[in-house]
Amino acid sequence: MIIKSLDPRITRAGIDDESKDGTQQPLDQWHTYEVFQQKKRGTHHVHVGSLHAPDAELAILFAKEQYARRGQCVNLWVVKTADVFATEYEDEDIFATTPEKKYREPEVYKVMDRIQAFKAKQNS
């Protein structure tokens, strides 16, 4: 009997199920974790990739070896992929705001002509 795995690489490999009764052992299916890295204190954590691990402790160890070994890193977060929730694209209206908030955009403040006039006045 071929193992039916959540990981497509295992299914493609055609690995035979070694358990006698066809049930899977607890560590047969590793979890997928998302890894976030902070390069310097005070900066934001940035998503750097994903990995497979049997539990959170090993996920931290694998993340350290995979993503923090060569580069600078001061902190890592690992989060089960199943625990990450996202909004649906159909729900984009929840982010809609009043369109008349142009004062928040830098393009509204066109002062380049004033700056050029000031520079010309300083040079003369």
Question: What's the helix and strand layout?
Answer:
Layout lengths: L7 H6 L17 E8 L7 E8 L2 H12 L7 E6 L31 H12 L1
Antiparallel strand pairs: 1-2, 1-3
Describe the structure.
- This protein is α+β, with helices and mostly antiparallel strands and about 120 residues long.
- The protein has one domain: Ubiquitin-like (UB roll), CATH 3.10.20.
- It has a three-stranded antiparallel β-sheet with strand order 2-1-3, with helices on one face.
- The mean pLDDT is about 80.
Number of helices: 3
Summed over residues and divided by their number, the pLDDT gives a mean of 81
The total domain count is: 1
Structural class, from helix and strand content? alpha+beta
| Share of helical residues | 10-25%
**CATH architectural designation:** Roll
Runs with pLDDT <50, length 5+? none
The number of strands is: 3
C-alpha geometry: elongated
Strand adjacency order, main sheet: 2-1-3
Rg measurement, Å: 26 Å
Could you name the CATH topology?
A: Ubiquitin-like (UB roll)
Quick rundown:
By secondary structure, the protein is α+β, with helices and mostly antiparallel strands.
Defining traits:
18% strand; alpha+beta; three-stranded antiparallel β-sheet; 24% helix; 124 residues
